[in-house]
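Morning run. Coffee first, then this:
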Amino acid sequence: MPENSRTGDVRAPVAAALRAREHALAKHAVSVLAPRWTAWILQALAERGDHGLTRNEFNNGLPFMPNSSATVRLNQLSALGLVTHDIRHRTSHYTISDAGQATLPAQERLAVWARAHYTDARPTPNADATEIALGQIMGKNTLDILAVARTVGTMEVPDLRTVLPNATYVHLTYCVQDMQQRGLLERVERGRYALSNAARDVEPALAALAAWAGTYARTNEPPPGNSQTKNPARVLPTTATTARAVPPEVRKAPAALAVRFSHPPQPFDHTSAAATTRSGRGR
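And here it is:
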């Protein structure tokens, strides 16, 4: 499609926005936190503090999470440095690391945003709200398209094609339409789109994500412009994720978890994990 003068005018500032360090860091943070169950695991561990959780306590206190998913994601989060894995009384024990704890302010901002724009009137657990928010912004090129719209005000698909040359016109058209359906873009005239109120309101959460990544994702920071990856880079240098002995006096009796479960197979009343365990309710 021939380049018009407007496309030429916006190409430089848009390219600069996509190369910005904060944009790359926000994308990296989303790639780390977006995989299913991540927010829920980190918030459950944060609730327990230094006591942490054993695998049995995960299974008993948070019964709807498949055991295989818990194992895979806990191992990934340990490798990323967000979770610490110990051996206590010959039992695997998990606690949240400083890097994992530092994600909580950004998770809270995401939850507030989701409650404002994407949840109904029912009370929504923080982990659920955080995951809902991440689900809205984790799509390939979603954050890039938001950055373009933020820079140029109104845009059309050819504007995106000039600054995202590796994406096809068909893919970008689909992305824009999908983002419109999800309430991130609004159509202002034929073929032209602008940020919605929801998209403008997510900016504080993206800034918090970038701030976290700027502090903790220092060893393998992604190059600017990279899309989210399935296997995000290590957040921290190798930390104490290997098993180590902990004195018996550290262990205390587990308490019932107040964290509510995420990703229910169907709508339910978000009863507490302890209550669902007593009732025998499972996934």
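The CA atoms of residues 10 and 214 lie 28 Å apart. Good start to the day.
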